[in-house]
Design brief:
mainly alpha, Jann2411-like fold, 6 helices, CGNR zinc finger domain-containing protein
Length: about 170
């Protein structure tokens, strides 16, 4: 499935930050590495900024875990915080593309705008494509990019663990 740049990478950053926040214990270097791995052009995140981003991540995780019908209101709450004027940017040899935070905005504001914008596009276009891994011990937030949009697990590994455990449980009862 192809997503626009914000619905795609913005939503992917949202999932990654939501997962970092849910797991707890992440530091500034992990938050920075996560942002960079998903295409954000950041060079540095201070400890205080990381704490703010992780607090935001807990709000993001609630969206991934919420029933589809509740996501619009939750994303609108995020957009209220992240509200700014969108504009079309051309930089670094890239084609014109939409930005929701000015280039001189701080790291936290950029993270708010990027993730809220990405989730807004996704909730409008494909609201059922957000999820949290169905394996109880996992909690990883994900954007379902599968062809049929019916993913329940963050990875094949988690799905296999659940299926093997279910199989073993059935074998014990027979």
């Amino acid at each position: 499935m192809h997503f626009n740049p914000y619905g795609g990478s913005g939503a992917q950053v949202a999932a990654a930050v939501a997962t970092l926040a849910e797991r707890g214990g992440a530091d500034a270097s992990e938050v920075l590495a996560t942002a960079i791995a998903h295409g954000m052009a950041l060079s540095r995140i201070e400890a205080g900024e990381a704490a703010e981003i992780l607090a935001w991540g807990r709000r993001l995780h609630a969206i991934f875990a919420a029933p589809e019908g509740e996501r619009v209101d939750l994303v609108n709450d995020l957009l209220t915080v992240a509200a700014c004027r969108p504009y079309i940017a051309r930089h670094d040899g890239k084609a014109p593309h939409l930005h929701y935070a000015s280039e001189d905005a701080g790291v936290v504001e950029r993270m708010h705008a990027y993730t809220a914008g990405g989730l807004a596009h996704l909730v409008c276009e494909e609201p059922g494509r957000l999820g949290v891994c169905a394996r109880e011990e996992c909690g990883v937030a994900f954007v379902d990019t599968s062809r049929n949009g019916r993913r329940r697990f963050c990875s094949t590994r988690c799905g296999t663990r659940v299926n093997v455990a279910d199989h073993r449980a059935r074998q014990l009862t027979t």
